[in-house]
Amino acid sequence: MLDLILLTKTTEKIGLVQNKHDILELAIDRPDQSQQLGSIFLGKVVTVDQSLQAVFVDIGQAQLAYLEKKEIPQFRKDQTQSIESLLYEGQSIIVQIIKDAYQDKGARLTMNITIANHALVYLPYGNYLAVSKKLKQTQADHLKEQLEPLCEAEEGLVIRTAARQYSIDQLADQISQLRLFWQTILTKADKQRPPQMIYEDHLITDRLIRKFSFDRINQIYVDQAIIANQIKTRYPELEHKISWEKQIDSILHMPVDALFQSIIQSEVVCDSGVTLVIDHTEALTVIDVNSSGFTGKMNQYNFSYKVNQIALKEIVKQIRLRNISGMIVVDFLRMKDRKSQQSIVQQFKQAVNADPVRTQIYGFTDLGLFELTRKREAPPHALSLSKRLIELRDFTLESKVYQLERKLIATTDEAVIVEVTREFRKMWDQLIDNKIFSQHVQTEVNFLESKGVKDYHIKRSGSSELINEFIYENQKLKVDKLN
Question: In what order do the strands lie in the sheet containing 2-7?
């Protein structure tokens, strides 16, 4: 069973998934690096590229987004059509993000819109019906037979595993609700000019929740009562599992800042002293298994195999926790017999089954390297948190701003003075909405500009009397009161 912990007070929204023992998954949503997978836009075609048979679309992001011909509904009907016969430059189109922008690459788009709830995925232009492979064949056939006649015109459906929990009448109501929601999107698009977002699929309060089967969710803890009530309204089936937790940090297995710090470090210590070194490049991620600190006892024959077994469990955990995706190469200890290699492959396949993100295992190459790919839906967390992806040692200035915001909202002292550099203050003003910040912070916050600190330093924290005394004794210093 899984607990979802949603931290929504701060500018940087954070979602964590944990079981009884470990934090399994992390989601980070920042305004400067917003993850908009699943969001729907009214875009404008900027360039029709005949050589690529694709178009570049302005959806209001820094880079133009990319739409392939195969992602256009009309192409599915007649695959002999060229891209220039389907779309033209300057045309307004409704598109959905299927892969977030990454580094210098724009987002990838589709015009085959999908709108999902817990049990169904509604496809306005799908023109087909699919059923989850996890359903028994008799259940699948029954649901398909009953729901297919409810689709209108070009509509399609994907029937998810959770659909078995509902009656046909309830599913019919859900189809009507999803259809009505799509109509509201079309109506909104008619009143807008491109580029414009017309529907946002929120990462923390929507996508993270829908990612898991509801029967696997034990509890959802939210740090704001108003957000908890909004989630209950959108997901009434989960109402009894959603709760507002004022002291939400006490539920976490590890403080957020400590978790972030562990994610940006390249070395990971596993059980029995086995270590992993995780290196990122622009093309792929390389994970090296090191046995120099191994403390277990065994004979020479099964030494490599046992170390690889220990490493395997931690590798799968770190890939999911760090959101590592794309091409991944693991340099396991060399195993002489093929049977041991095959055993590691099977164990790896079994271990990644718990990860909701699709992972493809290719196994060992002739050089003994283990290859896999994991679907990239968003950048790795290390890229968001760290200054450099290849040299993961220090937080970005943006990360430190969000870090301080969390600390200030969490503190119960009456007042605080924070020394900040000019660059830090500029970044704070750029990222933090002071009006919203003031609603959540309980302490009086004062900024003191200084050249003698690295980014920021909490100089004084305590009673209002203590802070006022410091300000009085240091009247020459320019202290800026934030709230």
Answer: 23-29, 13-18, 2-7, 217-222, 242-244
CATH number for the domain harbouring residue 47? 2.40.50.140
The answer to whether residues 265 and 240 belong to one domain is no
Q: Are residues 244 and 212 in the same domain?
A: yes
pLDDT at residue 392 in the model? 46
Kindly report, residue by residue over 39-72, the tens digit of the pLDDT: 999 999 999 999 899 999 999 988 999 999 999 9
For 7, residues 6+ apart whose C-beta sits below 8 A from its C-beta are 13, 14, 15, 16, 204, 223, 248, 256
Q: List, in sequence order, the alpha helices (H) in 54-97.
A: 73-77, 83-86
Alpha-carbon distance of 377 to 459, in angstroms, equals 41
What strands, in cross-sheet order, belong to the sheet with 120-123? 115-116, 120-123, 156-159, 129-131
Domain that holds residue 239: 1-35+201-253
CA atoms of 4 and 15, how far apart (whole Å): 7
Nearest to 260 by CA among 103, 401, 399: 399
pTM: 0.80
Cα–Cα distance measured from residue 55 to residue 71, given in angstroms and rounded to the nearest whole number: 11
16: Cβ contacts below 8 Å, ≥ 6 apart:
4, 5, 7, 23, 25, 26, 27, 252, 259
Q: Per the structure, how many domains does the chain have? A: 4
Count how many Cα atoms sit within 13 Å of the Cα of residue 397 in the half-sphere of its side chain: 15
**Domain-embedded: residue 150:** no
Collapsing DSSP states into helix, strand and coil, what is residue 341?
A: helix
**189 within a domain of the structure (yes/no):** no
Tell me, what amino acid is at 475? Q
Asked if residue 324 is part of any domain, the answer here is yes
Whether 268 and 370 share a structural domain: yes
Identify whether residues 11 and 60 lie together within a single domain.
Answer: no
Cross-strand partners of 99? 108
C-beta separation of 466 from 433 below 8 A: no
pLDDT greater at residue 453 or residue 241: 241
With 50 as the cut, is the pLDDT of residue 283 above it?
yes
